[in-house]
Amino acid sequence: MSFHDQQYREKRDFIRMKVEARAILTLHEGDEKIEADCQDLSSQGVQLVLDRPLPESAHLSLSIPSPTPGLQGLEAEGQVMRCEAVDNGQFIVGVYFNALK
Question: What are phi and psi of 11, to 5 degrees?
Fold first, then answer.
């Protein structure tokens, strides 16, 4: 199996769920809070849409509040793995989870 085939296969090892939720990011450097829209979520990370770019390798905390009272939201620590500009001036950001809280 080639390296490319292995990378592709590993990307598909984790089921991605489409999610429409607002997330709050806290960048560890500077303690800055940023709002983002979730596009999809897996057990290993999340894909977000932001109005600004984030540097690759940036460490952050992620919070997705639950809309249901009594049901805990998602709290995680992560790292930016990629940031790509899209046509509408927004940015698609892939975050890998280092830890779930």
Answer: -65, -30
Would you say 32 and 50 are in contact if contact means Cβ atoms under 8 Å apart?
no
DSSP string, 60-73: EEEEE--SSTTS--
CB count within 10 Å of CB 63 equals: 15
Over the stretch 23-68, which tens digit does the pLDDT of each residue have? 999 999 888 999 999 999 998 999 999 999 999 999 999 999 998 9
Which tokens in the block code for residue 98?
């280092």
Helix (H, G, I), strand (E, B) or coil at 6: helix
The number of helix segments (H) and strand segments (E) in the chain equals 1, 6
**What pTM was estimated for this model as a whole?**
0.82
